Amino acid sequence: MQNKIYYKSIPIFPYIKKHAHASTIVELSNGDLLSAWFQGSGERQADDVLIMGSRLRKGKSEWSKPFVMADVPGFPDINPVLFLDTQDRLWLVWYIVIAHQWDTSLLMYRISENYLKPKGAPIWSWQNVILVKPGDSAERGIQPNDRFVKSVERQIKEYANYLENTIEDEEIKRQSLAKWHEWGKSMLSKAKGEDMIRKGLLYDDKGGYIEQDTGYPYFQRMGWQTKNKAVIIGKRLILPLYSDGFDFSLMAITDDDGEIWQFSEPLVGPGNIQPSIAMKSDGTLVAYMRDNGPPPKRLHISTSKDNGMTWSPVR
Q1: Per-residue pLDDT at 294
Q2: What fold does the segment set 1-132 form as a domain?
């Protein structure tokens, strides 16, 4: 008798009036399923938004009564991601929105080693924030050779060349390049910290400096958001991130289970956000990204051959 493949839908909870969005699910080591989502009166503009969860025991057909997984009182808790690491520990990663704008998002995570109980939330043994630092040190302001700024600048030029060489209709090409020029100008300004100009120092190659107003990296380091699961390669954990402020993506990477984080070069394109990573048979990583830019809405992709540190041009 051949095995049958079938689809079965089991509602986690009945209809509610509150907003319930961005679900995530993980299969636990005992075969149970654990799901999480955010729920409240809205999204970033509702202080009552929190992370809820529910369990489906192996072999059962009814989800448990929903319970609170995480709640920072007075702040919206958004976009949970659940996964197990190489030590079989359960991670919950999400972000809070500090000032009701996406570019004020702050990444949070919790870890549990005691999550197999039949009811209620896991017992969390650790909680911390993920502080994102994709550029160089900027103690006295962002310097001209900052690696994040240089990468954004290079990829803006590369994408302009891509549009120039692939669009055949001259009027469409003209319009597309004009839109990309404005988009790129905004991205580069944010990368340079021009939203936060303060007194600083401009250093030269010999270690000397002059006093000068410089940009500071608030926008580089804040506003990064979660959506899709981490990918684990050996001891490396790669957590996909995106920014609604920049409208592009980035990878958070740890080789020691979250003790130290490093960050890939940014993946810069016209609204390529919320990356989901797959691995090809040759080890190449492929990031598939939602199109948050202008029409036509099409999937964006980029590849990495060095376990997530550098990525091919977004296309």
Answers
A1: 83
A2: Neuraminidase (2.120.10)
